[in-house]
Amino acid sequence: MPEHYLGIDVGTTAVKALVVDESGSVLGDAESGLRLSVAKPGWSEQDPADWWSGTIEAVRAACNQAGIGDVAAIGLSGQMHSSVLLDASDDVLRPAMLWNDVRTTAQCRWINENVGSDGLRRMVGNPALEGFTAPKLLWVRDEEPEVFERMRSVLLPKDYVRLLMTSDKVTEASDAAGTLLFDVREGVWSEEMVDGLGLDLSILPRVMGSAEVTGSLTKGAADALGLRQGIPVVGGGADNAAASVGSGNVGEGSMQTSIGTSGAVVAPIETVRVDPEMRIHSFNHALADRWYLMGVVLSAGAALGWFRSVLVGRRKVGLTYEELIAEADEVPIGADGLTFLPYLTGERTPHADSNARGVFVGLHSGHERGHLVRAVLEGVVFALRDSLELMRELGVNAQEAVAVGGGARSETWRQMQADVLGVPVVTAGPSGGAPYGAALLAAVGTVRFGSVEAGCRAWIRPVDRLEPSEISADAYHSAYERYTRLYPRLKEHFAETAQA
C-alpha cells in the first residue's frame, strides 16, 4: 500500500493540515481558523483547547479530501515562543501568551540587568525580547503568582498538541531555541540560564530530534482524529524551521523570505554565528548539524491585512487583496515619496522595540489609495532587507531567496523582494509551507529518507523564478534609504507615546 504522511502546523490564525503521498504530492490540504484574544494593548493570547479542536477539524478534513484513513507518520510544526502553562495534572492554567505578546518589557529589562548581554550571548546566543518564552514565565511569576505556584510544566504550541496526541512532553531544538532558555551551541537546556532566572529545570520538556520519533498516537487521540492508534509522531520543527525544510532551504548559500502574519528572513548556516550585538537571532535548524540566522518583522502580511480592514470596515466585503495590489502596480517605485513603517505591534529586527508603531510619512494631497498600498508593500520588504543587511555583516550572503507564506502568492510582492534584496526570488513546490516541512520530517523520521536533504531533493522542485532588475534596484535603494532614516528620528517619539 502507498504510504502517506501528515503534517500539522499550529499557526496564529489557523491550524493547518497536509496529507502528502510517498512521492511528495499533496493529496489533502485543510485548515481550521483560530481566535485571537487581545484583552489589553500589547497582549495577545489564545486558548490551547482551540489548537486541539482546530487540529481535529483540519486533520479530518485533510484526510477526507485525500480519501485516506491512515498515515505512516505525523510531523508537527507551530508558532514559536508561545507558552502553555500546565499544572500537576497537565491541565492548562491560563490562556497561552503568544509570540507577538509584548507585555513583558519590565521582565526583559530585569533579565538584561541581572544576566547581562555577555551572559545572554554566552548562555543562549539571543537577546531578551518580549516575545520569547522566558520573559513570559517571569511575568506570570510577577503578576499572577498563584498561577506560577501551580505551574509544573511549560510547553510550546506544537508540543502541547503532541502531549494530547501521545501523552509525552517532548520538544526539539528548533523550537526550544526560541525560549531564551536553550543553549543553541550545545543543543541542550541551559542550566545556568534557568538557574539565573530562578526557574526550575523540571518544568521543561525533553529535547529530541526534529526527525526523531517522539511517541505514538494514543487510542483517545486516534479516535478524535479519525486515525489509527500507534501512528509514530516525530519531533517536527518551529514554524520557520519547518517552512525552510518545506521549501528546501536547508543549506548554506540560500535563504527563505516569509510573508505571513509576520515576516522573516531565514538563512541556514553550518556553524553557529551569534551577532555580537544580538540584533538578529541565531537558532537551531530542524537538521541536527545546522543552525540558521533569522530576522523577524512582527507585522508583515498583517500590515496589509490591517490596511484592508481599515478600508472595508465592518462590512468585510469588497476590495480584495488582488485589487489593492493592482492599484499599487500603477504607482511608481517609492510611492511618490510616501514611506510606511510596518511596526504596528512593535518591531523585533533590527530595533527590538516594543514601543515602535506603524507610521505613514510623506503624505500629500496627490496621493491616492494605490500609493498607500504600495507604501505598505514596500515597507514590509524594506523591513526584510534590514534583516538581510545584518546577515551580510556576519558574512552570510545568500545567492537566492525562496519566498513562502501568503505574500509569496503575489508576483508583485515577489518581484519587489527580488529588486530590494538584490537576489533572484524563487518559489518551491508542491507547498513550501510549515505543514509540508513537518510532513517531510515525518517521512525522514520513519526512514522513508536517510536525511532531510535527501527528502528535500526527492520531493521539492522550483516552480517560479524572478530575477532582480538593476533599474528598479536603484529606485528602491533611494526609497530604502529614506525608510532607514525614519526609525532613529522617531524612536524617542515612540517611547513618549508609550508612556502616555
Topology:
Layout: E1 4-10, E2 14-21, E3 26-33, E4 45-46, H1 48-66, E5 73-78, E6 84-86, E7 96-97, H2 105-114, H3 116-123, H4 133-143, H5 145-150, E8 153-155, H6 157-166, E9 170-172, H7 173-176, E10 182-183, E11 188-189, H8 191-196, E12 206-208, E13 213-216, H9 219-225, E14 232-234, E15 237-238, H10 239-246, E16 254-259, E17 263-269, E18 281-284, E19 291-297, H11 301-312, H12 321-329, E20 339-341, E21 359-361, H13 369-393, E22 400-404, H14 411-421, E23 425-429, H15 434-445, H16 452-459, E24 461-466, H17 470-499
Parallel strand pairs: 1-5, 5-15, 9-12, 16-22, 22-23
Antiparallel strand pairs: 1-2, 2-3, 4-7, 6-8, 10-11, 13-14, 16-17, 17-19, 18-19, 20-21, 23-24
The Rg value, from CA coordinates, equals 22 Å
CATH architecture type of the largest domain: 2-Layer Sandwich
Record field, number of beta strands:
24
Low-confidence stretches: none
- Give the rounded overall mean pLDDT: 95
Task: Let me know the CATH homologous superfamily of the largest domain.
Answer: ATPase, nucleotide binding domain
